[in-house]
Amino acid sequence: MIRLGVLVSGRGSNLQAIVDAIKAGRLKAQISVVISDNPNAYAIKRCEKEGIECKVVERKDFSSRKEFEKELSRILKEKGVELVVLAGFMRVLSGEFLKNFPDRVINIHPSLIPAFQGLDAQRRAVEFGVKFSGCTVHIVDESVDGGPVIVQAVVPVLPQDTPESLSERILKWEHKILPQAIQWFSEGRVKLEGRKVIVEGARYGELPVNPALEIFPCFR
Ligand code: GAR
């Protein structure tokens, strides 16, 4: 079973989606450790409730980003983490950190990247007036929300949408595509060819999720 290290900064609804998918038997993975860079993150409460080990590592307690990331790496290595999942972790990780987990750090982002990378993606989508947005799970590289795309889900943007209503519509799909992407890693089906990710044996070409969901069949 693939050992996960989940990094969070806030509410932790994506963390909860991973936990729920594991509990439901859809996702064959174990969460070895959760790390929060924010001592007030609601994700910490979720860990307490679920009996998951959670460590708080605050940037302000370290003299440099390098030292902060060293501590993150140390914990993740100590716990034998095989895949690092950024689930609402609001920090950019350096190449030096990523070298410790080559092509094994993934992130969920609430837009169809490369559109609206960075902060406030949903608000910017509403303000720009795009007619579709969505969410992306991608492999993390040194860019901000710009690494190789594993899977994307598309949602419509409505004339009356607010950043909140769009966020809610997108979040429903985040909670599906993130556990699904992890399951593909756990099955060893994620292959990187240049900057293109191919999920072996996956069904490509359907809407709203490409490649299609497998572990949530009713959402296909
Ligand atoms: C999610 O919408 C996630 O996609 C976004 O933060 C939110 C975290 O929610 N991440 C980013 O914007 C990363 N650039 P959660 O804490 O409830 O999972």
Note down, in words, how this protein is organized.
32% of the residues lie in helices and 24% in strands. It has six helices and ten strands, in the order βαβαβαβαβαββαβββ. It has helices at 13-23, 42-50, 65-78, 95-99, 121-128, 163-186; strands at 2-8, 29-36, 54-56, 83-86, 105-109, 132-139, 149-156, 190-193, 196-199, 209-210. The strands form two sheets. It has an eight-stranded mixed beta sheet, sandwiched between helices. Strands 8-9 form a two-stranded antiparallel ribbon. Strand 1, helix 1 and strand 2 (29-36) form a beta-alpha-beta unit. The radius of gyration is 17 Å and the shape is globular. The relative contact order is 0.14. The mean pLDDT is 97. Glycinamide ribonucleotide (GAR) is lined by residues 10-14, 87-88, 108-110, 121, 145, 171, 174. Residues 10-14, 87-88, 108-110, 121, 145, 171, 174 line the site of glycinamide ribonucleotide.
Structural category: alpha/beta
Unreliable spans are none
CATH topology value of the largest domain: Rossmann fold
Total strands: the figure is: 10
Rg estimate, integer Å: 17 Å
Concise structural overview:
This protein is α/β, with parallel strands linked by helices and 220 residues long. The protein contains 6 helices and 10 strands; from the N terminus they run E-H-E-H-E-H-E-H-E-H-E-E-H-E-E-E. The structure holds glycinamide ribonucleotide (GAR).
Q: How would you summarize the topology of this molecule?
A:
Blueprint: E1 2-8, H1 13-23, E2 29-36, H2 42-50, E3 54-56, H3 65-78, E4 83-86, H4 95-99, E5 105-109, H5 121-128, E6 132-139, E7 149-156, H6 163-186, E8 190-193, E9 196-199, E10 209-210
Parallel strand pairs: 1-2, 1-4, 2-3, 4-5
Antiparallel strand pairs: 5-6, 6-7, 7-10, 8-9
Helix pairs in contact: 1-6, 5-6
Glycinamide ribonucleotide is lined by residues 10-14, 87-88, 108-110, 121, 145, 171, 174.
